[in-house]
Every structure is written in C-alpha cells, then in structure tokens.
Amino acid sequence: xxxxxxxxxxxxxxxxxxxxxxxxxxxxxxxxxxxxxxxxxxxxxxxxxxxxxxxxxxxxxxxxxxxxxxxxxxxxxxxxxxxxxxxxxxxxxxxxxxxxxxxxxxxxxxxxxxxxxxxxxxxxxxxxxxxxxxxxxxxxxxxxxxxxxxxxxxxxxxxxxxxxxxxxxxxxxxxxxxxxxxxxxxxxxxxxxxxxxxxxxxxxxxxxxxxxxxxxxxxxxxxxxxxxxxxxxxxxxxxxxxxxxxxxxxxxxxxxxxxxxxxxxxxxxxxxxxxxxxxxxxxxxxxxxxxxxxxxxxxxxxxxxxxxxxxxxxxxxxxxxxx
Length: 323
What we know:
It is built from seven helices and 14 strands. It is of the alpha+beta class.
C-alpha cells in the first residue's frame, strides 16, 4: 500500500539565497540530493502553493515549500539469467539491443522475465535506483513488441543526466517501421493524452489536450500496399509513433491496438492479396529503434549507436519483395 507524506518548510533569513535542492536535502535528512532533485523535477514540490520544477532556484526569506513524498511498499525483484544483446558498456551505462517480446520492467501480469531482471543479473545490481525497485537503471522504455536500441543507467548521476537529455529532446532517436499504405514524407504534430475510456491506451488530438508531440517520417521503400519508413522523433511520448502513423491512415503492421480496424481495405485489391495475408499475419508491431545518440554524462562526448532491422522484420520485407 502506498502512503503519501507532506512536509512543510518555511525559509528563514539564514537559508535565504541557497539553492532549493541544497535546502531540502538539509531539511529532509533521509533523502540524498539526487532524490531531492527528482522530487522537484517530478512536480512533488510546491512554492507558495504553485509547483516549482527548478532545483537551482535560490530560496528567499518567507518562501513556503510543501513537499509531497509517496512511500511505496515495493517488491524486491530477483535477477534472472536472460541473455542481453549489449552494444556498448562502461562503468556508467550500457546500450542494449532489446529483442521484441520482452517487457521493459515488471508490471501486473509480467512480474518475471523482464528486461529489468536481465539487467539485475548482468550488472549484479549495480544500477541506478532513482525509480525504485521496479525500474532499476531504466531511463526510457520500449513497448514489449518494439525492438531496438535502449540506454540503461548504472548510477543515479548518469540517470539524472540522461533523463534531462530526454526531457530537453536533445537525444537523437530514429526508428524504422513497416506500415500499411504508402505515406508521403511529412512532419506529424499533435497532442497525446491518456485515453479517456481505455487507460492502457493513449489518444491523439490537435486540440492541445495532453503533451505536444512531433515525428518526422521519411519513405524508404514502397511495396504498393505497405511501406518501409524512417521515423525521427522530435519528442518522445508514450506510443507516439504508433499514434502518429495511425493518424495519417498508415498504421504499423502488426499493431493490434491502434489502427487494427483500418487494414481491411488493403485486402480488396486482388493482385495484392498475397501481400495482404503476409502483412496481416505478422505477429508483432513492425517497429524497431534503429538509432540512439546522446552526450555521455561523464565522458562529455557525443555517442551514436545504430542497429540493423531484426531478422523477423527483414524476412517480412523479403517476402513483400517476392510477392
């Protein structure tokens, strides 16, 4: 059971002109400065009843802060010997090529066999713990049936730095997808929010409800009723690419959540019916994270990693060429 505690702190003259994160670390002795920074950035701190997100804010005499801290009773997950495809590793982070079918972190219905358990085994528990026991090392995630490149943090300072880069959209990310139809090169923009009925889904709109999102798409190859495209993320919202492509009537092949009811029209053309059956029977969403680029938090140099399409997606393309 989760419990939320509220701490109230009033600033006196002695504390004036000191950074907010330093003041809170001093007042809340149980928590490290790194944990305090995360509380601030996650909106858990209010200044005079208004959220404040800047850890470097210089506090003033008579400022009134309210800090909400949720204590969760978390399960300690055990390491599992699951093979990882590691592209790069050093003392601060590792970059992996995630296979399709593996869940990023434990959740109801997927308590074992996740990427987290594999990372715990490989790193011998030397992972960041900012997100608690359920998500050690996890800075960002890929859907269960999406494959490709991910970066994992081994310590909290690396985690914070990478999280900031993701938040500021300075990390470069590209994906390749096999979609229904033949979309034109374009930028897709709009807003993404949690679906009002099905809370496991997201919804896309142009009415400024939710978080702004933008994807640049480029056609690589057309297969008449399907295409291979490249997607460059300008933002990184939950299910962004899947929603964006569905919004232009080019849903990702194998996506059983978004756009599933839009594919029947592609089976109406007799000459493409073989391709239609091949595409319809692809067992997962044909989406792969092909590129990730970021500034290394301690080496202070830009690092870029690339991943070829996995065997299942490449085989699908070969079949489309054949038929």
